[in-house]
Amino acid sequence: MRKLSLVFLGVLASMLLFMIPNNKVSADDNNTIFNAVEFTSENPATDELESESDIDWFKYTVNSKGTICFSFINMSEKEARWDVTIFDESGQNQIWSQNTDWSATSTISPLYSFANGTVLTFRIKDCSSAEGLRYQLSAMIDETGAWSEEDNGSYLKQLL
Fold this sequence. Notes:
Layout: H1 2-19, E1 37-38, E2 45-49, E3 55-61, E4 67-74, E5 82-88, E6 94-99, E7 106-108, E8 111-113, E9 119-126, E10 133-142, H2 146-149, E11 156-158
Parallel strand pairs: 1-3, 8-11
Antiparallel strand pairs: 2-10, 3-9, 4-7, 4-10, 5-6, 5-9
């Protein structure tokens, strides 16, 4: 009897999800800050936004000295508008946010210098009502200090 009740509840929950219009359930599991998928400088994050309501979260831990910037690349063949936001570990304090225009294929954050061990969270949202938008999020580190010596002082953010 208990198994029958569990099966019934599962079927009922599935039916409710399909009956709600325009509410596509994502197959991925990084839709909250608590389920953020970790990526590294060596292993960029690649994912897909399945609908406008699909929001993806990622986590990055700074593990080297030097200047760092983050790159977001639209890997879809579709034009889209993206919202890429960097937060602190708790997701409460916004560090940087960028809304791209329709034809943008990539966006790069300002240069940052974070203390080793700093944890950052990233939120990726689709602002164009498109479906199936593939992207890549990566971190680029300059341990030599050459980037910070370039004539772009307004882009370097010193956050410790």
